[in-house]
Amino acid sequence: MSWSNQGGPWRSGQGPWGQGPNGPQPPGDLEEVMRRLQNFLRGLTPGGGSTGRWAIFAGLLIVILWLLWGFYTVQPNEVGINLVLGRYTGKTAAGLNYNWPPPIGAVIKVPVWVQKITPVGLRTEAEETEVVARASAPEESLMLTSDLNIVDVKFRVVWQIDPAKPEDFVFNIRRPEDTVKAVAESVMREVVGLKTIDGILTTDRKVIEPDVQRRMQYVLDTYKAGVLIRQVQLQSVDAPAQVISAYRDVTAAQQDEQRMVNEAETYANRVVPEAEGSAARIVLEAKAYREQTVADAKGQTSRFNQVYEQYKNAPAVTRERMYLETMEHIFGGVQKTIVDVAGAAAPLPYLSLDQLQAKPAGASK
Q1: Domain of 59?
Q2: For all residues of the chain together, what is the average pLDDT?
Q3: Residue 212 burial (CB < 10 Å; 0-12/13-18/19+)?
Q4: Is the pLDDT confidence value at 44 over 70?
Q5: Number of domains present in the structure of the chain
């Protein structure tokens, strides 16, 4: 039987609550409403007039509808936590899942892939996914260093729910944001207490962030908090406002000192090789002079020994030859006049053949 030609399942032209085809009508008394509903359900049950069958059918229908209520959907960035009678029974991944419907079962959907930001030392407000600083919180940011100086440290912690242990996040901690913040502040104070203020303000900043992240993760794992620390970011590390100008002067002086040290090292790297090269050259020249002197001495010794051997064989001849060689060496380059004192009384004229053979410059041949 089609509903279109019979006026729908409500043959009287009205709905079970007194609603006609033209819109809602003023409801009648409760008994009239119940009577109409009973007549409708009785018409759907086999036999039409059996109260027991109607009750069974109605009960089955309610049970089926209640069981269908247990289907639920988990989004891609979520994990479902299933509870049965208040007891944790397991977790479900993204997609269509099923659990006992209320009041027997319950589902807690946890956004495990959403990263959260917890600032420390700053009063902030959230704007979508960004955290914008509004004012400082000195009771959180002022910390004591190992050399008993005070430093102002502002930082933030990026964290998320651990996808492997979302049940720990749901059941083990009551206020997770406050817990993460308290652990972050405590661990940062511990790490800063191990450093000097000079190191914190200059070279130790890159070491502090991973150290704090590792220590925070260890503490939260000990608490079984179900929290995964993604990053620790130092926003600012400064001396207190009352002495910040003095610390800036100290930092500038340290930079000047380092610059002068670098310049001195550069000068030393340039001068030392030059000095070493000059020293090596002098040493090599001294060694060459020594070798030359020793070789000359050995040559003269060898020549003297050879002359001495000849002298032992013929002393007169050797003396004569040595005399002539010496005279030749002495008088070979000077003009000479030879006088024969044993001859005539007048000097014998001497014709210099060397001067006759020598032609003046520019003379024709």
Answers
A1: 1-68
A2: 78
A3: buried
A4: no
A5: 3
